[in-house]
Amino acid sequence: MVTTPGSLLLARRGDARPGLRAGDRTWTWDEVVRESLLRGAVLRRLGLADPAHVGVLLENTPEHAFWIGGAALAGGTLVGGNLTRRGDALGGDLRHTDCRALVVGPGQRALLDDVDTGVPADQVHIVGSDAYAALLDDARADADAAYDEPWAAPDPTRPMLLLFTSGSTGAPKAVVCSHGRLGTIALRSNDSFGLTRDDVAYISMPMFHGNAIMACWAPALSVGATVALRERFSASGWIDDVRRYGATYTTYVGRALAYVLATPPGPDDRDNPLRLAFGTEASARDREAFTARFDVQILENYGSSEGVIAIHRVPGTPDGALGLPQPRPGADVAIVDPETGEECPRAVIDANGTPTDPACIGELVDRGGAPGFEGYWRNPEASSERLRDGWYWSGDLGYRDVDGWFWFAGRSSDWLRVDSENFAAAPVERILARSERVLLAAVYGVPDPETGDQVMAALELLPGEAFDPDAFAAFLSAQADLGTKWAPRFIRIVASMPVTGTNKIDKNPLRRAAWETADPVWWEREKGAGYARLTPEERTALRDRFTAAGRAAFLPPPLT
What is the reported pLDDT for 411? Predict the structure, then answer.
């Protein structure tokens, strides 16, 4: 019998241990089961358990957890609405995923104003309203009956979740996660996390994303650990929450660790119950500083909501490396040249962790990974882009060193071509992150007036720091592993780095704007001349150069 989240929930019937905490409220696992059955009964009464989809626009609230549980028990499909999306972008997500009903938090109701979601008004259910309370009351008898005689187990191949990708490399796509796949994830995750009944899993990452559900909620459910919720991530409130809930385990995505580290340190930071934090895309510097400050073990991996390739840091992993692929039957993870289909040569890594030859960088591919990919909802083009010739192509760049360790080199959109030399953004970002003044760095290509790209970097500085062009130029000169084409031509100083709803840096608006921004932009007028502020007159002269070279189509929209 295939394990599903529904079967794991039913195993918690009668369990009087704390199952869910939020604010000052605590629900036992038995109460969590009953509340989940109640939402599942609503799905069934409204005819939404099979095959209709229900969209949820909720913060990390108990209602969100109960609706996930309801879908698990009733065999339904939940669509996690990205709360950072607005207008028709949000409406398009909900229409694309064929939502027949919406469950909306009172604070998210305004997001739907003048938005075409494709959902009838009488199927938009506002949490906390009288109508919502009546909806639950009408289904209570059905839920009570299902507690003693549960509904038939859902088809494990049926989608349980449609979770949108972060959109950091393009339009978000709805990743399919079946009931069976989430059940398997719940069990396998604990091979790495080692959660027990006595653990408290703290969720502050958004529950419309795979990290919170797949790496925190599901593993906690599998062993009956307590789940503690924070409505939305707060760097300043993080350590207080950890102590308040007695959290022993948590997850993070993107730059969350950097934001916590940017808060003022306290003398008792190491006095906390947390033993393990699991996540992706934190820098080696941030992982080291976080461990030192909070006395917490960091378990970093490479993975995605698609769930095909998982690379974990293991003992002996070099600083900055991803680690080794997680063993899985049939898996064959490699770095492949996307043009030739051949495996790239192993990288020789210098003392700073930088590859000495760009030819070693290719796309991260699982040559045996097709069976593990459940596809994107109603997006055959994107699904086909991931599955080519029976291989799973991640869309991410990487390299593998001579000792077999895998390293991350950025997204497929992070290739730059400067003076006919190809290189990836991630190694440059790792170098810029060494600066003691830099909190976050994003490197991306902007068009060159003649051909190819020029390097641009957006920097978010640490609180209280100001950009010093001479000091920054001296810093770059001191980096022995900075490639001859890698130094940024343009530097943009941002007050706050644009991020996706999951705290991943969003380079799309940075690329679109290039140097046409109200933020301070510094540039090297000539190579080696040092950085100076880009003036309005120089912006105009740049545009004229593009026009004269017949490349006006590559120009960013002018600053207005």
Answer: 84
